[in-house]
């Protein structure tokens, strides 16, 4: 790496760190509290990951992601998942068009809601697996194939899928292999008393916040590429890999509790996301390389949906979160 590019990267780290503070200030004009969730969403977006957000209705999940898109000047699209939703309702469909001059009929592709920068996949577990997989292909490949033609999605491309943890009747839970495609699994809690008072005051008055656009598409893509260039010490990578390995029943450093409680542990994608998240956190805070503490900050959101407790653990009421906390001790 040349001195000039290193200087540019140092300037970019400082600019991103300053921009993140302004983004959070702008979002706080609309969203009260939820600072950790907002921070994790920004980390996921900058690390080119996707998020699964689990929370009861009415906690402003849609408003949060809409506000984020507005502040970042990105095209926002919301897909309400229902049992009758078809893959073409997400990706787009072909229609027969007649040329007014030649009178010839040709197929024309009409782009679906997935052709946006930020996608809110609302209640993703309400639709059958066939439709879920259409979105998951777009998430993984950043491409959509329709009638044998591949259409590339515009960057940046970020999917935030939501799930309601209460009602499970008539739902299609995401298989583990599909859950693994999400960088983070974030749980949204109720606001505290003080925050709820603030929410009620602002939402029942005629207060209309004016949001400033902080970053554009090209800036975001540049920052996503910057994250990839951040150097990481070997001991930080080794810590992430060792921790992920310890979640596997047949891992090298696995203790007896894990063997008794876990069916399947996390795969290599967990280690990748831990390092990417640590890099992003470091840059957002104006630092040039991540530490082990940065990795520790993301153990829960990265591993929560990747550890599958067995029947014995479930009978004892032990969840994946408790298993992670035990390993962290």
Which helices and strands, and how do they pair?
Elements: H1 3-27, H2 35-46, E1 51-54, H3 61-71, E2 76-80, H4 87-91, E3 92-98, E4 105-111, E5 118-122, H5 129-141, E6 143-146, E7 149-152, E8 158-163, H6 176-179, E9 184-187, H7 193-203, H8 217-229, H9 234-245, H10 256-261, E10 262-264, H11 268-284, H12 292-296, H13 299-303, E11 308-309, H14 311-315, H15 320-328
Parallel strand pairs: 1-8, 1-9, 2-5, 5-8
Antiparallel strand pairs: 3-4, 6-7, 10-11
Verbal overview:
There is one protein chain. The protein has 329 residues and is an alpha/beta fold. 47% of the residues lie in helices and 16% in strands. A hairpin with a 2-residue loop joins strand 6 (143-146) and strand 7. The model has no long low-confidence stretch (mean pLDDT 83).
Short description:
This protein is α/β, with parallel strands linked by helices and 329 residues long. The protein has helices at 3-27, 35-46, 61-71, 87-91, 129-141, 176-179, 193-203, 217-229, 234-245, 256-261, 268-284, 292-296, 299-303, 311-315, 320-328, and strands at 51-54, 76-80, 92-98, 105-111, 118-122, 143-146, 149-152, 158-163, 184-187, 262-264, 308-309. A hairpin with a 6-residue loop joins strand 3 (92-98) and strand 4 (105-111).
Radius of gyration: 21 Å
Kindly report the average pLDDT value.
83
Biggest sheet features: 5 strands, parallel
The fraction of residues in strands falls at 15-25%
Q: How are the strands of the largest sheet arranged?
A: 2-5-8-1-9
Number of helices, counting only DSSP H or I runs of 4 residues or more: 15
Low-confidence stretches: none
Calculate the terminal CA-CA distance, rounded to whole Å.
Answer: 39 Å
């Amino acid at each position: 790496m040349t001195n000039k590019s290193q200087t540019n990267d140092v300037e970019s780290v400082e600019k991103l760190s300053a921009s993140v503070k302004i983004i959070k200030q702008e979002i706080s004009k609309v969203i009260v509290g939820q600072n950790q969730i907002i921070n994790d969403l920004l980390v996921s977006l900058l690390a080119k990951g996707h998020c699964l957000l689990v929370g009861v209705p009415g906690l402003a999940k849609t408003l949060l992601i809409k506000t984020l898109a507005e502040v970042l000047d990105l095209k926002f699209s919301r897909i309400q998942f229902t049992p009758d939703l078809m893959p073409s309702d997400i990706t787009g469909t072909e229609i027969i068009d007649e040329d007014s001059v030649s009178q010839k009929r040709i197929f024309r592709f009409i782009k679906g809601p997935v052709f946006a920068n930020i996608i809110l996949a609302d209640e993703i577990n309400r639709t059958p697996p066939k439709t879920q997989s259409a979105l998951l292909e777009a998430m993984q490949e950043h491409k959509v194939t329709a009638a044998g033609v591949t259409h590339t999605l515009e960057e940046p491309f970020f999917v935030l899928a939501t799930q309601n943890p209460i009602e499970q009747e008539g739902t299609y839970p995401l298989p583990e292999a599909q859950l693994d495609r999400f960088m983070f699994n974030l749980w949204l809690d109720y606001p505290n008393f003080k925050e709820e008072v603030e929410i009620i005051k602002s939402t029942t008055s005629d207060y209309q916040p004016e949001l400033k656009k902080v970053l554009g598409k090209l800036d975001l893509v540049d920052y996503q590429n910057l994250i990839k260039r951040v150097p990481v010490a070997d001991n930080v990578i080794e810590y992430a890999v060792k921790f992920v390995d310890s979640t596997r029943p047949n891992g090298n450093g696995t203790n007896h509790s894990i063997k008794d409680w876990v069916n399947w542990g996390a795969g290599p994608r967990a280690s990748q996301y831990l390092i990417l998240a640590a890099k992003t956190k470091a840059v957002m805070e104006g630092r040039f390389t991540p530490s082990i503490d940065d990795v520790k900050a993301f153990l829960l959101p990265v591993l929560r949906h990747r550890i599958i407790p067995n029947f014995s653990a479930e009978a004892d009421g032990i969840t994946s979160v408790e298993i992670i906390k035990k390993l962290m001790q």
